[in-house]
Amino acid sequence: GAVVSQHPSWVICKSGTSVKIECRSLDFQATTMFWYRQFPKQSLMLMATSNEGSKATYEQGVEKDKFLINHASLTLSTLTVTSAHPEDSSFYICSASKGAADTQYFGPGTRLTVL
Amino acid sequence: DAKTTQPTSMDCAEGRAANLPCNHSTISGNEYVYWYRQIHSQGPQYIIHGLKNNETNEMASLIITEDRKSSTLILPHATLRDTAVYYCIVRVPYNTDKLIFGTGTRLQVFP
Lengths: 115, 111
Fold this sequence. Notes:
The structure holds two protein chains of two kinds. Chain A is built from no helices and eleven strands. By secondary structure, chain A is an all-beta fold. In chain A, strand 7 and strand 8 form a beta hairpin. Chain B is an all-beta fold. Chain B has no helices and nine strands. Chain B has strands at residues 9-13, 18-23, 32-38, 45-50, 55-56, 61-64, 70-75, 84-91, 105-110. In chain B, strand 6 (61-64) and strand 7 form a beta hairpin. The A-B interface holds A 2, 4, 6, 32, 34, 36, 43-46, 49, 91, 93-95, 97, 100-109, 111 and B 34, 36, 38, 41-46, 49, 87, 93-94, 97-104.
């Protein structure tokens, strides 16, 4: 149980384009989903927290207009990187939890490369 | 949430027990200790968590000292597939869902 998937697993795009990454909880309903970013040889950095049906809460320094998060259902959250630039190239990882007190389960990650 | 301190790296022979320490000397009474691991280029995998009692599951055991200022994750029979970065995180459920990842311990299991 507690399986989280991400799609796509990797994506290459041109600078200036937008990229959407999906995160799904496959066998449970996720009240809360999280988006992290990880640069090479660094640890995970939390970008934002989203609760189903409400606006995401972004961490300090994360541009909400650049990283659009939608959590429209209890099993799906999407992260859209708008007008991507090479510095946005990173490993994007989502996680999901059933509720405030529950364990977070992570997706396999999406590697974004912006040319 | 309290900060944690972990060794940067550790080695372990295959088949032997891997004991990964974590210091969380500023932990408060309602903070849980969580362990995750991240195998290269994958998302983190949940291992185990506990409050004050020792815990065991099919993956590992978690030993928390009586004063709760430190803990040890034990992989009883390490395999090559256990090579990963292991993260020890303290968290207050109900207060915040956030997991703040430190630098973790890079465990290398060798044949």
